[in-house]
Design brief:
five-stranded parallel sheet, 24 strands
Length: 429
Protein backbone atom coordinates (compact mmCIF):
# COMPACT_ATOMS: atom_id res chain seq x y z
CA UNK A 1 0.00 0.00 0.00
CA UNK A 2 2.80 2.38 0.87
CA UNK A 3 4.59 1.54 -2.38
CA UNK A 4 1.45 2.31 -4.40
CA UNK A 5 1.06 5.69 -2.67
CA UNK A 6 4.72 6.52 -3.34
CA UNK A 7 4.37 5.67 -7.03
CA UNK A 8 1.26 7.83 -7.37
CA UNK A 9 3.05 10.73 -5.68
CA UNK A 10 6.01 10.32 -8.05
CA UNK A 11 3.71 10.46 -11.09
CA UNK A 12 2.07 13.66 -9.80
CA UNK A 13 5.45 15.33 -9.20
CA UNK A 14 6.72 14.35 -12.66
CA UNK A 15 3.57 15.73 -14.32
CA UNK A 16 3.89 18.98 -12.42
CA UNK A 17 7.53 19.35 -13.45
CA UNK A 18 6.64 18.62 -17.09
CA UNK A 19 3.89 21.26 -17.11
CA UNK A 20 6.19 23.79 -15.49
CA UNK A 21 8.88 23.05 -18.08
CA UNK A 22 6.44 23.53 -20.95
CA UNK A 23 5.13 26.79 -19.45
CA UNK A 24 8.65 28.17 -18.90
CA UNK A 25 9.78 27.26 -22.42
CA UNK A 26 7.08 29.56 -23.86
CA UNK A 27 5.06 26.92 -25.74
CA UNK A 28 1.64 27.71 -24.38
CA UNK A 29 1.17 31.49 -24.57
CA UNK A 30 -0.03 33.30 -27.66
CA UNK A 31 2.39 36.18 -27.06
CA UNK A 32 5.39 33.90 -27.03
CA UNK A 33 4.17 32.24 -30.22
CA UNK A 34 4.22 35.71 -31.82
CA UNK A 35 7.73 36.38 -30.55
CA UNK A 36 8.89 33.14 -32.13
CA UNK A 37 7.46 34.06 -35.54
CA UNK A 38 10.08 34.21 -38.30
CA UNK A 39 10.80 37.18 -40.54
CA UNK A 40 10.30 36.78 -44.25
CA UNK A 41 13.74 36.23 -45.79
CA UNK A 42 13.29 38.70 -48.66
CA UNK A 43 12.06 41.36 -46.23
CA UNK A 44 15.07 40.81 -43.96
CA UNK A 45 17.52 41.03 -46.87
CA UNK A 46 15.86 44.22 -48.12
CA UNK A 47 16.07 45.77 -44.66
CA UNK A 48 19.79 44.99 -44.29
CA UNK A 49 20.63 46.37 -47.74
CA UNK A 50 18.53 49.53 -47.36
CA UNK A 51 20.11 50.39 -44.00
CA UNK A 52 23.60 49.62 -45.28
CA UNK A 53 23.06 52.15 -48.07
CA UNK A 54 22.35 54.82 -45.47
CA UNK A 55 24.97 54.01 -42.80
CA UNK A 56 27.83 52.59 -44.89
CA UNK A 57 29.18 49.31 -46.21
CA UNK A 58 30.89 48.55 -42.89
CA UNK A 59 27.48 47.74 -41.43
CA UNK A 60 26.79 43.99 -41.53
CA UNK A 61 23.20 43.55 -40.45
CA UNK A 62 23.09 39.76 -40.57
CA UNK A 63 25.96 39.53 -38.07
CA UNK A 64 24.99 42.45 -35.84
CA UNK A 65 21.22 41.93 -35.83
CA UNK A 66 20.37 38.35 -36.86
CA UNK A 67 16.81 38.73 -35.51
CA UNK A 68 15.93 42.42 -36.19
CA UNK A 69 12.26 42.05 -35.25
CA UNK A 70 12.95 39.85 -32.25
CA UNK A 71 15.74 39.50 -29.71
CA UNK A 72 18.26 41.71 -31.59
CA UNK A 73 16.16 44.80 -32.49
CA UNK A 74 17.66 47.62 -34.58
CA UNK A 75 17.26 51.14 -33.19
CA UNK A 76 14.80 53.00 -35.39
CA UNK A 77 13.16 49.87 -36.78
CA UNK A 78 9.70 48.64 -35.77
CA UNK A 79 7.93 45.54 -37.00
CA UNK A 80 4.54 43.88 -37.05
CA UNK A 81 3.16 40.48 -38.04
CA UNK A 82 1.32 39.87 -41.29
CA UNK A 83 0.18 36.34 -42.18
CA UNK A 84 2.41 34.86 -39.50
CA UNK A 85 5.62 36.62 -40.57
CA UNK A 86 7.43 39.71 -39.32
CA UNK A 87 7.57 42.76 -41.61
CA UNK A 88 9.08 46.22 -41.12
CA UNK A 89 6.46 48.91 -40.46
CA UNK A 90 8.67 51.84 -39.38
CA UNK A 91 12.18 52.93 -40.37
CA UNK A 92 13.89 56.02 -38.91
CA UNK A 93 17.39 56.97 -40.02
CA UNK A 94 19.51 59.61 -38.29
CA UNK A 95 20.65 60.72 -34.81
CA UNK A 96 17.21 60.84 -33.23
CA UNK A 97 18.36 58.88 -30.16
CA UNK A 98 21.77 58.40 -28.56
CA UNK A 99 22.17 54.91 -30.02
CA UNK A 100 20.49 55.60 -33.36
CA UNK A 101 22.07 54.59 -36.65
CA UNK A 102 24.48 57.30 -37.82
CA UNK A 103 24.34 58.37 -41.45
CA UNK A 104 27.31 57.92 -43.74
CA UNK A 105 28.48 61.08 -45.59
CA UNK A 106 28.09 59.17 -48.86
CA UNK A 107 24.78 57.53 -48.07
CA UNK A 108 22.51 56.43 -50.87
CA UNK A 109 18.97 55.31 -51.52
CA UNK A 110 19.11 51.67 -52.57
CA UNK A 111 16.23 50.11 -54.52
CA UNK A 112 15.84 47.51 -51.76
CA UNK A 113 14.24 50.23 -49.61
CA UNK A 114 11.13 50.01 -51.79
CA UNK A 115 10.89 46.24 -51.27
CA UNK A 116 9.69 46.68 -47.68
CA UNK A 117 6.12 45.52 -48.26
CA UNK A 118 4.30 46.92 -45.22
CA UNK A 119 6.22 50.11 -44.42
CA UNK A 120 3.97 52.70 -42.76
CA UNK A 121 6.49 55.26 -41.46
CA UNK A 122 9.75 56.44 -43.05
CA UNK A 123 11.83 59.31 -41.67
CA UNK A 124 15.27 60.84 -42.16
CA UNK A 125 16.64 63.28 -39.60
CA UNK A 126 19.87 65.25 -40.16
CA UNK A 127 21.33 62.68 -42.54
CA UNK A 128 22.02 64.60 -45.74
CA UNK A 129 24.20 67.38 -44.37
CA UNK A 130 26.69 68.28 -47.12
CA UNK A 131 25.01 70.37 -49.85
CA UNK A 132 28.37 71.21 -51.48
CA UNK A 133 30.56 68.13 -51.08
CA UNK A 134 27.87 65.46 -51.35
CA UNK A 135 24.41 66.71 -52.37
CA UNK A 136 21.71 64.05 -52.55
CA UNK A 137 18.41 64.08 -54.44
CA UNK A 138 15.30 62.12 -53.57
CA UNK A 139 14.91 59.27 -56.08
CA UNK A 140 12.08 59.96 -58.49
CA UNK A 141 11.01 56.36 -59.07
CA UNK A 142 9.54 53.48 -57.04
CA UNK A 143 7.59 55.58 -54.52
CA UNK A 144 4.37 54.18 -55.97
CA UNK A 145 5.35 50.84 -54.42
CA UNK A 146 4.57 52.40 -51.02
CA UNK A 147 1.18 53.65 -52.25
CA UNK A 148 -0.79 51.01 -50.36
CA UNK A 149 1.02 51.25 -47.03
CA UNK A 150 2.99 54.46 -46.29
CA UNK A 151 1.19 56.79 -43.88
CA UNK A 152 4.02 59.10 -42.74
CA UNK A 153 7.04 60.38 -44.70
CA UNK A 154 9.47 62.85 -43.14
CA UNK A 155 12.75 64.51 -44.16
CA UNK A 156 13.87 66.88 -41.37
CA UNK A 157 17.01 69.01 -41.10
CA UNK A 158 18.79 67.74 -44.22
CA UNK A 159 20.58 70.70 -45.88
CA UNK A 160 22.31 68.33 -48.29
CA UNK A 161 19.00 67.08 -49.65
CA UNK A 162 18.57 69.11 -52.83
CA UNK A 163 16.60 69.12 -56.06
CA UNK A 164 12.89 68.83 -56.65
CA UNK A 165 10.24 66.85 -54.85
CA UNK A 166 9.36 63.78 -56.96
CA UNK A 167 5.94 64.01 -58.55
CA UNK A 168 5.59 60.32 -57.68
CA UNK A 169 4.90 61.42 -54.08
CA UNK A 170 1.43 62.19 -55.43
CA UNK A 171 0.79 58.45 -55.63
CA UNK A 172 1.15 57.93 -51.87
CA UNK A 173 -2.60 58.02 -51.40
CA UNK A 174 -2.51 56.53 -47.86
CA UNK A 175 -0.21 59.31 -46.65
CA UNK A 176 -1.48 61.19 -43.60
CA UNK A 177 1.68 63.17 -42.77
CA UNK A 178 4.23 64.60 -45.21
CA UNK A 179 6.98 66.65 -43.57
CA UNK A 180 9.83 68.14 -45.64
CA UNK A 181 11.29 70.53 -43.07
CA UNK A 182 14.57 72.49 -43.21
CA UNK A 183 16.08 70.83 -46.25
CA UNK A 184 17.65 72.21 -49.44
CA UNK A 185 14.76 71.30 -51.73
CA UNK A 186 13.78 73.65 -54.55
CA UNK A 187 11.54 73.91 -57.61
CA UNK A 188 7.77 74.20 -57.77
CA UNK A 189 5.35 72.32 -55.54
CA UNK A 190 3.87 69.30 -57.36
CA UNK A 191 0.26 69.92 -58.31
CA UNK A 192 -0.62 66.27 -57.74
CA UNK A 193 -0.16 66.76 -54.00
CA UNK A 194 -3.87 67.48 -54.25
CA UNK A 195 -4.33 63.73 -54.76
CA UNK A 196 -3.19 63.09 -51.18
CA UNK A 197 -6.71 63.41 -49.85
CA UNK A 198 -5.89 61.52 -46.63
CA UNK A 199 -3.31 64.13 -45.58
CA UNK A 200 -3.75 65.67 -42.17
CA UNK A 201 -0.34 67.37 -41.96
CA UNK A 202 1.64 68.95 -44.80
CA UNK A 203 4.82 70.75 -43.68
CA UNK A 204 7.18 72.03 -46.42
CA UNK A 205 8.81 74.85 -44.43
CA UNK A 206 12.40 76.01 -44.58
CA UNK A 207 13.28 75.04 -48.15
CA UNK A 208 13.69 77.00 -51.41
CA UNK A 209 10.44 76.19 -53.15
CA UNK A 210 9.36 78.68 -55.81
CA UNK A 211 6.30 79.43 -57.90
CA UNK A 212 2.63 79.47 -56.98
CA UNK A 213 0.74 77.39 -54.47
CA UNK A 214 -1.18 74.85 -56.60
CA UNK A 215 -4.96 75.24 -56.78
CA UNK A 216 -5.24 71.53 -56.03
CA UNK A 217 -4.25 72.15 -52.40
CA UNK A 218 -7.79 73.38 -51.85
CA UNK A 219 -8.99 69.80 -52.26
CA UNK A 220 -7.20 68.64 -49.10
CA UNK A 221 -10.39 68.68 -47.06
CA UNK A 222 -8.97 66.57 -44.20
CA UNK A 223 -5.85 68.70 -43.76
CA UNK A 224 -5.29 70.00 -40.22
CA UNK A 225 -1.87 71.66 -40.58
CA UNK A 226 -0.43 73.41 -43.65
CA UNK A 227 2.99 75.02 -43.19
CA UNK A 228 4.68 76.43 -46.31
CA UNK A 229 6.66 79.09 -44.43
CA UNK A 230 10.23 80.23 -45.15
CA UNK A 231 10.33 79.50 -48.87
CA UNK A 232 10.33 81.62 -52.05
CA UNK A 233 6.72 81.05 -53.05
CA UNK A 234 5.06 83.81 -55.09
CA UNK A 235 1.79 84.72 -56.74
CA UNK A 236 -1.65 85.04 -55.19
CA UNK A 237 -3.37 82.54 -52.91
CA UNK A 238 -5.61 80.00 -54.65
CA UNK A 239 -9.31 80.83 -54.54
CA UNK A 240 -9.81 77.17 -53.68
CA UNK A 241 -8.32 77.60 -50.19
CA UNK A 242 -11.83 77.68 -48.77
CA UNK A 243 -12.03 73.94 -49.47
CA UNK A 244 -9.64 73.14 -46.61
CA UNK A 245 -12.54 73.18 -44.19
CA UNK A 246 -10.84 71.06 -41.49
CA UNK A 247 -7.66 73.09 -41.25
CA UNK A 248 -6.48 74.25 -37.81
CA UNK A 249 -3.14 75.92 -38.58
CA UNK A 250 -2.16 77.80 -41.76
CA UNK A 251 1.37 79.22 -41.89
CA UNK A 252 2.50 80.88 -45.15
CA UNK A 253 4.88 83.37 -43.54
CA UNK A 254 8.21 84.52 -44.98
CA UNK A 255 7.52 84.05 -48.67
CA UNK A 256 6.86 86.42 -51.59
CA UNK A 257 3.12 85.86 -51.86
CA UNK A 258 1.02 88.76 -53.09
CA UNK A 259 -2.46 89.84 -54.08
CA UNK A 260 -5.59 90.19 -51.99
CA UNK A 261 -6.56 87.95 -49.12
CA UNK A 262 -9.16 85.50 -50.48
CA UNK A 263 -12.77 85.76 -49.41
CA UNK A 264 -12.70 81.95 -49.08
CA UNK A 265 -11.09 82.42 -45.67
CA UNK A 266 -14.64 82.69 -44.34
CA UNK A 267 -15.04 78.92 -44.80
CA UNK A 268 -12.15 78.11 -42.46
CA UNK A 269 -14.31 77.95 -39.36
CA UNK A 270 -11.90 75.70 -37.44
CA UNK A 271 -8.73 77.71 -38.06
CA UNK A 272 -6.86 78.68 -34.89
CA UNK A 273 -3.61 80.07 -36.43
CA UNK A 274 -3.28 82.31 -39.50
CA UNK A 275 0.30 83.47 -40.07
CA UNK A 276 0.95 85.45 -43.28
CA UNK A 277 3.70 87.73 -42.02
CA UNK A 278 6.56 88.91 -44.25
CA UNK A 279 4.88 88.64 -47.63
CA UNK A 280 3.50 91.16 -50.15
CA UNK A 281 -0.24 90.92 -49.58
CA UNK A 282 -2.32 94.00 -50.40
CA UNK A 283 -5.93 95.00 -51.03
CA UNK A 284 -7.02 95.70 -47.47
CA UNK A 285 -8.38 93.50 -44.70
CA UNK A 286 -11.10 91.29 -46.17
CA UNK A 287 -14.25 90.97 -44.07
CA UNK A 288 -13.88 87.19 -44.26
CA UNK A 289 -11.11 87.43 -41.65
CA UNK A 290 -13.71 88.19 -38.99
CA UNK A 291 -15.69 85.07 -39.92
CA UNK A 292 -13.01 82.66 -38.71
CA UNK A 293 -14.62 82.33 -35.31
CA UNK A 294 -12.09 79.84 -33.90
CA UNK A 295 -9.08 82.05 -34.66
CA UNK A 296 -6.63 82.47 -31.76
CA UNK A 297 -3.65 83.99 -33.60
CA UNK A 298 -3.83 86.36 -36.58
CA UNK A 299 -0.39 87.52 -37.74
CA UNK A 300 -0.37 89.68 -40.89
CA UNK A 301 2.59 91.96 -40.09
CA UNK A 302 5.06 93.23 -42.69
CA UNK A 303 2.68 93.23 -45.63
CA UNK A 304 1.54 96.30 -47.64
CA UNK A 305 -2.08 95.38 -46.95
CA UNK A 306 -3.41 98.92 -46.64
CA UNK A 307 -6.92 100.02 -45.77
CA UNK A 308 -8.29 100.53 -42.29
CA UNK A 309 -9.50 98.58 -39.27
CA UNK A 310 -13.07 99.85 -39.31
CA UNK A 311 -14.61 97.37 -41.75
CA UNK A 312 -14.13 94.22 -39.67
CA UNK A 313 -16.54 92.99 -37.02
CA UNK A 314 -13.85 92.38 -34.45
CA UNK A 315 -16.31 91.28 -31.79
CA UNK A 316 -16.78 87.99 -33.70
CA UNK A 317 -13.20 86.92 -32.93
CA UNK A 318 -13.87 86.16 -29.29
CA UNK A 319 -11.06 83.59 -29.02
CA UNK A 320 -8.33 85.85 -30.41
CA UNK A 321 -5.17 85.88 -28.27
CA UNK A 322 -2.61 87.37 -30.68
CA UNK A 323 -3.35 90.11 -33.22
CA UNK A 324 -0.29 91.44 -35.07
CA UNK A 325 -0.94 93.97 -37.84
CA UNK A 326 2.35 95.83 -37.51
CA UNK A 327 3.81 97.46 -40.62
CA UNK A 328 0.74 96.68 -42.69
CA UNK A 329 0.07 100.10 -44.25
CA UNK A 330 -3.07 100.66 -42.18
CA UNK A 331 -4.69 104.10 -41.84
CA UNK A 332 -7.60 105.56 -39.90
CA UNK A 333 -8.52 105.21 -36.26
CA UNK A 334 -8.29 102.21 -33.96
CA UNK A 335 -11.87 100.96 -33.56
CA UNK A 336 -13.17 100.69 -30.02
CA UNK A 337 -14.71 97.33 -30.92
CA UNK A 338 -11.25 95.78 -30.38
CA UNK A 339 -11.98 96.24 -26.68
CA UNK A 340 -14.39 93.31 -27.05
CA UNK A 341 -11.49 90.87 -27.55
CA UNK A 342 -11.38 89.80 -23.91
CA UNK A 343 -8.76 87.04 -24.44
CA UNK A 344 -6.31 89.28 -26.28
CA UNK A 345 -2.77 89.17 -24.89
CA UNK A 346 -0.74 90.68 -27.72
CA UNK A 347 -1.86 93.63 -29.86
CA UNK A 348 0.66 94.88 -32.43
CA UNK A 349 -0.32 97.91 -34.52
CA UNK A 350 3.09 99.57 -34.80
CA UNK A 351 4.57 101.26 -37.88
CA UNK A 352 1.32 102.06 -39.65
CA UNK A 353 -0.44 105.34 -40.45
CA UNK A 354 -3.06 105.13 -37.69
CA UNK A 355 -4.54 108.41 -36.46
CA UNK A 356 -6.90 109.70 -33.79
CA UNK A 357 -7.01 109.31 -30.04
CA UNK A 358 -6.29 106.11 -28.17
CA UNK A 359 -9.31 104.75 -26.32
CA UNK A 360 -8.66 104.45 -22.55
CA UNK A 361 -10.90 101.35 -22.65
CA UNK A 362 -7.96 99.34 -24.00
CA UNK A 363 -6.85 99.16 -20.39
CA UNK A 364 -10.00 97.12 -19.67
CA UNK A 365 -8.70 94.16 -21.69
CA UNK A 366 -8.11 91.69 -18.82
CA UNK A 367 -5.41 89.57 -20.47
CA UNK A 368 -3.51 92.23 -22.45
CA UNK A 369 0.21 92.08 -21.64
CA UNK A 370 1.74 93.64 -24.79
CA UNK A 371 0.55 96.70 -26.72
CA UNK A 372 2.72 98.13 -29.52
CA UNK A 373 1.47 101.37 -31.12
CA UNK A 374 4.76 103.06 -31.98
CA UNK A 375 5.43 104.56 -35.39
CA UNK A 376 1.95 105.92 -36.09
CA UNK A 377 0.23 109.35 -36.14
CA UNK A 378 -1.83 108.99 -32.97
CA UNK A 379 -2.75 112.28 -31.30
CA UNK A 380 -3.93 113.74 -28.04
CA UNK A 381 -3.33 112.91 -24.41
CA UNK A 382 -2.92 109.31 -23.26
CA UNK A 383 -5.70 108.63 -20.77
CA UNK A 384 -4.73 105.11 -19.79
CA UNK A 385 -4.60 104.54 -16.02
CA UNK A 386 -1.27 104.67 -14.24
CA UNK A 387 -1.56 101.00 -13.25
CA UNK A 388 -1.67 100.06 -16.94
CA UNK A 389 1.83 101.43 -17.56
CA UNK A 390 3.08 99.58 -14.49
CA UNK A 391 1.53 96.33 -15.69
CA UNK A 392 2.98 96.42 -19.21
CA UNK A 393 6.24 98.28 -18.62
CA UNK A 394 8.47 98.04 -21.72
CA UNK A 395 5.77 96.00 -23.44
CA UNK A 396 3.81 99.21 -24.00
CA UNK A 397 5.25 100.99 -27.04
CA UNK A 398 3.93 104.37 -28.15
CA UNK A 399 7.05 106.23 -29.24
CA UNK A 400 7.31 107.91 -32.66
CA UNK A 401 3.80 109.36 -32.46
CA UNK A 402 4.77 113.07 -32.70
CA UNK A 403 1.39 114.43 -31.58
CA UNK A 404 0.83 112.01 -28.71
CA UNK A 405 1.56 113.06 -25.12
CA UNK A 406 1.07 111.85 -21.56
CA UNK A 407 -0.34 113.75 -18.56
CA UNK A 408 2.24 115.74 -16.63
CA UNK A 409 1.04 114.09 -13.41
CA UNK A 410 2.68 110.81 -14.43
CA UNK A 411 6.14 112.31 -14.04
CA UNK A 412 6.00 112.03 -10.24
CA UNK A 413 5.01 108.36 -10.39
CA UNK A 414 7.96 107.25 -12.51
CA UNK A 415 5.63 105.39 -14.87
CA UNK A 416 6.23 107.51 -17.94
CA UNK A 417 5.68 105.76 -21.32
CA UNK A 418 9.01 105.53 -23.11
CA UNK A 419 9.50 107.94 -26.03
CA UNK A 420 6.28 109.89 -25.42
CA UNK A 421 6.55 113.58 -24.52
CA UNK A 422 4.65 115.23 -21.64
CA UNK A 423 1.61 117.26 -22.60
CA UNK A 424 1.95 121.01 -22.68
CA UNK A 425 -0.40 123.06 -20.53
CA UNK A 426 -3.86 123.08 -22.05
CA UNK A 427 -2.97 120.39 -24.63
CA UNK A 428 -5.69 117.76 -25.16
CA UNK A 429 -6.96 115.47 -27.91
Amino acid sequence: MKCLFAMNLLVVVLCALLCLSVWCSGQVTETDNIDASPMEEAEQAALYSAIQGFVGNWWNGSDLYPDPCGWTPIQGVSCDIFDGLWYVTSLSIGPIHDNSLSCDPYMEFRPQLFELKHLKTLSFFSCFISPHSHPVTIPSNNWERFGGSLESLEFRMNPGLVGQVPSSFGGLTKLQSLVLLENGLSGELPGNFGNLTSLKRLVLAGNRFTGRIPDSFGGLSQLLILDLSRNLLSGSLPLTFGGMTSILKLDLSNNQLQGSLPSGFSYLKNLTLLDLRNNKFSGGLTKSLAEMYSLEEMVLSNNPIGGDLQGLEWHNLKKLVVLDLSNAGLVGEIPESIVGLKRLRFLGLSNNGLTGNLSPRLADLPCLSTLYLHGNNLTGELQLPESFYGKLGWRFGAWNNPNLCYPIGLISTGRVPFGVRPCQEGERG
